Amino acid sequence: MNIITVKINGVEYNLKGEEQEDYLHKVARHVDRKIQSILDNNPKLSTSSAAILTAMNAVDERLKEQEKTLQLEKQLEKAEFEKQEQENSIASLKNSLNNEKKIRKSLEEKIDNVDLDDSVKEKEEQIKKMSVEMKLMQDTARKYMEDNNLRKAEMKDLKFQLQSAKYKIMDMEKKLLDSQVNLAREKKQRNALKVNNL
């Protein structure tokens, strides 16, 4: 327990407190300045009236600060809630993206395993289906960007993944074209063999 002597409005007071001496002196100087300010503006006031006005002003300031603190706490709670919602939306989008990756991988495997004897129409349907799914992925990402204002780094990652998927579709279209060429070549060879066998 610290005991110090302070002077307020020319009168000495003994203060006891757990706080440091510097802090207690700082409080006393603040109170002294406030009382002096009130007395300077109202010279006819008594010391006790000035002290009461100082106390009223101090309580007023304290209550206003408490109100500000409450408002800041509410704003902080709201910000935390919005942050949580955004994190949930990001997690949901990542989950959707992972599902789309699985679907794309499955389709890629199907395209890789297609025989030359399979019809060209079936391959084209697979490409169309993949294009529709990629469009859905793009629309989902675009909608999320507009609704939730994704962070730039996450947006860059999504754009990269979408661009990568586009290149894979282009590669699959090339494979389809190669398959069509090989199929045509094989048909030509079969026709040539039939002619030779005749």
TrEMBL record:
Q: Where are the transmembrane segments?
A: none
Keywords of this protein's UniProt record, alphabetized? Cell cycle, Cell division, Coiled coil, Cytoplasm, Septation
> Which residue stretches, if any, does this entry annotate as coiled coil?
56-189
Q: Name one Pfam family in it.
A: ZapA
Where, per UniProt, does this protein localize? Cytoplasm
Q: What is its main location?
A: cytoplasm
One Gene Ontology term from the biological process aspect of the record: cell division
Domain of life of the organism encoding this protein: Bacteria
InterPro entries associated with the record: Bac_CellDiv_Activator (IPR053712), Cell_div_ZapA-like (IPR007838), Cell_div_ZapA-like_sf (IPR036192)
Q: Does the keyword Coiled coil apply?
A: yes
Q: Which PANTHER family match?
A: CELL DIVISION PROTEIN ZAPA (PTHR34981:SF1)
Quaternary structure and partners: Homodimer. Interacts with FtsZ.
Purpose? Activator of cell division through the inhibition of FtsZ GTPase activity, therefore promoting FtsZ assembly into bundles of protofilaments necessary for the formation of the division Z ring. It is recruited early at mid-cell but it is not essential for cell division.
Give the protein's recorded name: Cell division protein ZapA
Organism the protein comes from: Clostridium oceanicum
